[in-house]
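Anyone up for a design puzzle?
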């Protein structure tokens, strides 16, 4: 019989060591006890390694237990083998999580299957790691809908075979809801700008309609009294022509507004850029405005190719930004140039306003970035312009010098000449 034990010993210099002692009895052939023999082994290094491993395991367990994200493991069959407290909170099971989940086969859960997550887990257990972003999911009992970032990392054994899957989950439901809310705000802001644009688009022709309708009414009154001469008849006809022209202009603006929900993407058609710019300036800059508008429009400019509503939105945004930039200057001026540039159409809109500092000029096309007061914008106009132009195959860039002015360069695909 062998008796073994481990104990601590101290050397003469008071250094502590660990030793393993083994003692056994030695007997003769007749079974009579002769003596005892034993062995002593210094196992200090082994004990230190074991202590380090224990501390490392405890440290790793503390990290997993206190991690703000859910961490758990599945075996090669998809059965839970470990869970951490964050998963307990996420699942709503709390202190019952370990009892309920350990041994539970997640691959056979109907909600895991119906959401498509089971297919990804199978891939992970076949050795293919995966990462899902904002994945829609229903908890294992089907009592809660949520979104989550899900990362699956295969666990390989020494022989290279998959022994399980390490799963890391971070719930992103609040992030998804916040993003959806922001998108709704973007849509509402865009709709607000659209409505403002339509209001501008309708205001001028409606004012013209009223003025010329009054003139026409006066002429009709004179006609009833047989007091109209030939020139007055021609004036009446001109008034009615203008009324008809402006009425059709209002009709087209309303038609474009009603057609927006029916559009599937942008519709690319030939666009008279010069005419569009003149129209926007007429509807955007009121009569008597102190702003000096200079238009250097190329007389034989070919048509651009793009979505008329989107291009109108781009020019309206940039021109309104220019108006805001020069509003405090006594010599406020805006210059608009158009010219062909190879197979493209180039438009430059320059103002002599406050300019944009070099430190932020690269950010002007980022969503929600703005240098304006809160009531004047939320930083979506230029980002929307860039998005629309990118989709149409165009481009927009900017150059600016503080206190001197800013120029926006817009390019659109041109119609073949």
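Challenge accepted. My sequence:
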């Amino acid at each position: 019989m062998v008796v073994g034990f481990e104990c601590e010993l101290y050397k003469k210099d008071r250094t502590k060591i660990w030793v393993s002692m083994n003692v056994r009895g030695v007997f003769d052939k007749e079974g009579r006890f002769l003596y005892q023999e034993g062995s002593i082994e210094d196992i200090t290094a082994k004990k230190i390694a074991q202590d380090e491993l224990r501390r490392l395991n405890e440290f790793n367990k503390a990290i997993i237990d206190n991690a703000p994200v859910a961490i758990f493991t599945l075996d090669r069959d998809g059965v839970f083998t470990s869970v951490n407290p964050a998963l307990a909170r996420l699942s709503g099971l709390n202190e019952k999580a370990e009892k309920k989940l350990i041994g539970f086969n997640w691959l056979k859960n109907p909600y895991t299957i119906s959401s498509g997550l089971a297919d990804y887990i199978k891939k992970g257990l076949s050795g293919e790691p995966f990462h899902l972003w904002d994945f829609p999911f229903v908890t294992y009992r089907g009592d809660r809908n949520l979104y989550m970032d899900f990362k699956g990392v295969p666990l390989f054994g020494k022989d290279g075979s998959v022994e399980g899957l390490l799963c890391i989950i971070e719930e992103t439901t609040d992030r998804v809801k916040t993003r959806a809310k922001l998108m709704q705000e973007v849509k509402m802001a865009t709709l607000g700008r659209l409505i403002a644009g339509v209001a501008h688009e309708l205001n001028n022709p409606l004012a013209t309609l009223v003025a010329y309708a009054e003139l026409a009414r006066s002429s009709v009154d004179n006609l009833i009294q047989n007091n109209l001469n030939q020139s007055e008849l021609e004036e009446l006809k001109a008034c009615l022509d203008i009324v008809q022209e402006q009425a059709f202009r209002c009709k087209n603006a309303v038609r474009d507004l009603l057609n927006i929900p029916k559009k599937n993407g942008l519709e690319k058609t030939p666009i008279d850029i010069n005419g569009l710019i003149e129209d926007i300036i007429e509807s955007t800059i009121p009569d008597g405005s102190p702003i000096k508008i200079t238009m250097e429009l190329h007389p034989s400019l070919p048509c651009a190719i793009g979505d008329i509503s989107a291009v109108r939105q781009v020019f309206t945004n940039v021109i309104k930004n220019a108006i805001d930039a020069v509003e405090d200057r006594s010599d406020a001026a805006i210059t608009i140039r158009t010219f062909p540039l190879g197979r493209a159409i180039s438009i430059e809109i320059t103002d002599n306003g406050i300019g944009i500092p070099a430190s932020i000029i690269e950010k002007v096309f980022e969503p929600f970035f703005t240098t304006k007061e809160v009531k004047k914008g939320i930083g979506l106009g230029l980002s929307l312009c860039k998005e629309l132009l990118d989709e149409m195959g165009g481009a927009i860039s900017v150059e600016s010098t503080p206190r001197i002015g800013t120029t926006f360069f817009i390019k659109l695909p041109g119609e073949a000449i």
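A detail worth pointing out: The chain is about 40% helix and 30% strand.
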